[in-house]
């Protein structure tokens, strides 16, 4: 047993812009020739590469998802959207105000329900398909519970004209991380909604008053609020996450990426992606004792990628 | 038989075992020490799968979930695999190309992609935008044209009495279109006239001053109305804005388009029509003139006027937006020759006289 107390660890990324570029080019061409149907395979290739080049304690991560799995999810997701939009279009065609308003309500209710379903499904799929040293991640959230929490939070956010969204975001993060597993390692998120609200108000107004200069401190604070409140628990041993990102670092990242993308007319986007991933990982430090040899496999297999694909279509970004 | 140094993970815990791998005809044998005991694991070749990788680490997985894993850095393993199991798909051609950084292939693919992007940007996108312009509802087109009109007319000095006279003239002609035609005459030392989407036509007073007959003015107006009728102006604008259109769609910012239209009205109204559009407008103009019993010599006179002034700075604007070609002149002469000279329209002549009186002031 090797337990190192008060140790600091980092995840490192070894990806190269040129390799990612090669993958992007092949993906783009195949997507053009298949009119977009290649998308699930393209996404699988990118994820596989990025995971493969991500290292922790000398071992690489792996993404096990396949284009075939995601294609099945893709088809289901398309089906769901076709049905939802068909309802809306039929309601509009009816030229009857009652049917139209009922159709609109159904449409928005379906979208509101679909977001949590998509997040839940995507987390379950993505986590199950991620492994390190053969041990898989997992998401144990309960769909009913999560949808309930989401709908209540969503309605409160609408009722408070968006103000509640800060407490809502923190609540969702808490729910998600408390149900995340890496083998027998558990996670927790300790953020506080009020603190998050203050941080955003401060960041928004200072950015406004300083004509955007403060924006870099604002994104730094948002990142720190996310990372610093994360912890991992291995059978009672708590590991804490810590952000070392600075406003200057963010400025370099954002300004550099903008220049790269503008001057290459977007062609060098993979290099910008690599810079971003490097920046994120190099600014996260994990403090605490970890026994890297005793993580046990605990999670179930899960191969339904529908949630992942709905998320893509709704543009919900997952980390 | 050669054996390889590998790392082995049993899929139950994260312990990484230093192990050795030897390849047999039907199975792989993995051997390692655990708590001072020799352990050995057998993988049936048929169920071994390789993780397609982009780096020099070779990863193989085996069995049902949770799967066992082995990692090997030894390049010789691949050579051995090829020899021992030539039929087994341990290799992926597409990946191999990328892995060995086949630069020629990659450069070729990149150039191909850039080619596709350029073709879509310069040909497919404008073509598509034109198709979009064809399907814009008339009411939208009119309100768009009005916005542009408001933004353009400020730059000019409007001649109210001439405007009123020319609009009286317009009422005498059936232009065979559903668009509400509204002419505005402005004081400008250039020979120019242009049509906005939705029915507004701006005419510079200088060109009116040079005209000699009612038929000539009718020909000019019929030509401009034809541009309106076929949405030439709207199509031109959409073509030249197709890049903006995509960008604003990408950023979900439709309001941006309206702002751009408003800010660049002047530039957008001075876009040159293509030869095909000019021919189409001339043909429609001839049709309008014939239907109204007007003399097609008006068109010939108009072209002659423009031709005689070709080298003067004043005409450059009109000729740059409506390129005058020898084919156009020949076409006008031909249709005029075939026409039996119609009787002069009395009402129209009166209105023309009124314009003439106004011009002299
Ligand atoms: Zn023209």
Give the helices and strands, then pairings.
The complex is a heterodimer of chains A (319) and B (361).
Chain A: E1 8-9, E2 11-13, H1 17-33, H2 39-52, E3 54-56, E4 59-63, H3 67-94, H4 97-128, E5 130-132, E6 135-139, H5 143-159, H6 165-178, E7 180-182, E8 185-189, H7 193-209, H8 215-227, E9 230-234, E10 237-243, H9 247-263, H10 269-282, E11 284-287, H11 306-314
Antiparallel strand pairs in A: 1-11, 2-3, 3-4, 4-5, 5-6, 6-7, 7-8, 8-9, 9-10, 10-11
Helix pairs in contact in A: 1-2, 1-10, 2-3, 3-4, 3-11, 4-5, 4-11, 5-6, 6-7, 7-8, 8-9, 9-10
Chain B: E1 3-9, E2 17-23, E3 27-34, E4 37-44, E5 48-51, E6 58-62, E7 68-72, H1 76-84, H2 93-99, H3 103-134, H4 138-153, E8 157-158, H5 160-171, E9 182-187, E10 193-195, E11 200-204, H6 205-210, H7 214-229, H8 232-250, H9 254-263, H10 265-269, H11 275-291, H12 297-308, H13 313-321, H14 326-338, H15 346-360
Parallel strand pairs in B: 9-11
Antiparallel strand pairs in B: 1-2, 1-7, 2-3, 3-4, 5-6, 6-7, 8-9, 10-11
Helix pairs in contact in B: 3-8, 4-9, 5-15, 7-11, 7-12, 8-9, 12-14
The structure holds zinc ion.
What can be said about this structure in brief?
Chain A has 319 residues and is α+β, with helices and mostly antiparallel strands. Chain A has helices at residues 17-33, 39-52, 67-94, 97-128, 143-159, 165-178, 193-209, 215-227, 247-263, 269-282, 306-314, and strands spanning 8-9, 11-13, 54-56, 59-63, 130-132, 135-139, 180-182, 185-189, 230-234, 237-243, 284-287.
């Amino acid at each position: 047993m090797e337990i190192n107390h008060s140790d600091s660890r980092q995840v490192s990324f070894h990806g190269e812009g040129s390799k990612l570029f090669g993958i992007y080019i092949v993906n783009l061409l195949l997507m053009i020739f298949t009119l977009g149907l290649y998308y699930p395979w393209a996404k699988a290739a990118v994820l596989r590469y990025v995971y493969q080049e991500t290292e922790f304690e000398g071992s690489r991560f792996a993404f096990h998802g396949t284009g075939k799995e995601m294609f099945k999810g893709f088809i289901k997701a398309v089906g769901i959207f076709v049905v939802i939009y068909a309802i809306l279009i039929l309601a509009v065609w009816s030229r009857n105000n009652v049917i139209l308003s009922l159709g609109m309500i159904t449409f928005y209710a379906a979208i509101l329900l679909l977001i949590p379903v998509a997040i839940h499904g995507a987390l379950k799929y993505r986590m199950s398909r991620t492994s390190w040293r053969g041990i898989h991640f997992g998401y144990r959230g309960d769909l009913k519970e999560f949808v309930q929490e989401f709908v209540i939070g969503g309605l409160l956010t609408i009722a408070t004209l968006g103000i509640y969204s800060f407490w809502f975001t923190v609540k969702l993060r808490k729910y998600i991380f408390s149900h995340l597993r890496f083998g027998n390692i558990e996670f927790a998120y300790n953020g506080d909604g009020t603190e998050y609200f203050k941080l955003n108000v401060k960041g928004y107004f200072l950015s406004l008053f300083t004509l955007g200069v403060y924006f870099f401190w604002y994104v730094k604070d948002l990142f720190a609020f996310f990372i610093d409140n994360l912890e991992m628990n291995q059978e009672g041993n708590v590991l804490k996450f810590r952000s070392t990102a600075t406003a200057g670092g963010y400025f370099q990242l954002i300004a550099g990426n903008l220049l790269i993308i503008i001057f290459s007319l977007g062609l060098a986007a993979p290099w910008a992606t690599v810079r971003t991933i490097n920046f994120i990982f190099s600014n996260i430090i994990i403090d605490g004792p970890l026994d890297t040899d005793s993580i046990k496999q605990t999670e179930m297999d899960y191969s339904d990628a529908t949630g992942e694909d709905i998320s893509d279509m709704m543009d919900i970004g997952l980390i | 038989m050669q054996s390889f140094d590998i790392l082995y993970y049993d899929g139950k815990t994260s312990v990484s075992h230093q192990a050795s791998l030897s390849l047999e005809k039907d199975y792989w044998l993995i051997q390692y020490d655990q708590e001072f005991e020799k352990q050995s694991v057998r993988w049936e070749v048929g169920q071994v799968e390789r993780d397609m990788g982009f780096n020099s680490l070779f990863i193989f997985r085996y069995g049902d979930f949770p799967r066992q894993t082995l990692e090997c850095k030894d390049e010789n393993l691949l050579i051995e695999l090829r020899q021992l199991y030539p039929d087994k798909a341990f290799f992926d051609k597409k990946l191999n190309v990328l892995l060995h950084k086949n630069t020629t292939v990659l450069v070729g693919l990149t150039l191909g992609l850039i080619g596709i992007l350029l073709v879509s940007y310069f040909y497919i996108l404008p073509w598509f935008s034109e198709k979009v312009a064809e399907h814009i509802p008339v009411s939208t087109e009119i309100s768009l044209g009005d916005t542009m009109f408001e933004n353009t007319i400020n730059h000019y000095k409007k001649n109210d009495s001439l405007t009123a006279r020319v609009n009286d003239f317009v009422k005498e002609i059936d232009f065979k279109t559903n668009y509400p035609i509204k002419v505005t005459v402005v004081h400008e030392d250039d020979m120019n006239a242009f049509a906005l989407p939705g029915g507004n036509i701006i005419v510079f007073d200088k060109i009116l001053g040079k005209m000699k007959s009612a038929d000539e003015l009718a020909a000019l107006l019929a030509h401009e109305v034809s541009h309106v009728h076929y949405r030439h102006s709207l199509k031109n604008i959409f073509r030249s804005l197709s890049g903006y259109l995509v960008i604003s769609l990408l950023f979900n910012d439709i309001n941006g388009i309206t702002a751009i239209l408003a800010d660049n009205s002047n530039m957008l109204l001075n876009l040159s029509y293509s030869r095909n559009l000019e021919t189409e407008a001339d043909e429609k103009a001839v049709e309008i003139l014939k239907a109204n019993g007007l003399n097609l010599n008006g068109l010939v006179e108009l072209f002659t006027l423009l031709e005689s002034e070709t080298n003067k700075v004043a005409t450059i604007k009109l000729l740059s937006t409506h390129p005058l070609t020898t084919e156009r002149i020949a076409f006008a002469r031909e249709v005029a020759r075939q026409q039996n000279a119609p009787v002069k329209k009395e009402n129209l002549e009166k209105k023309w006289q009124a314009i003439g009186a106004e011009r002299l002031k």
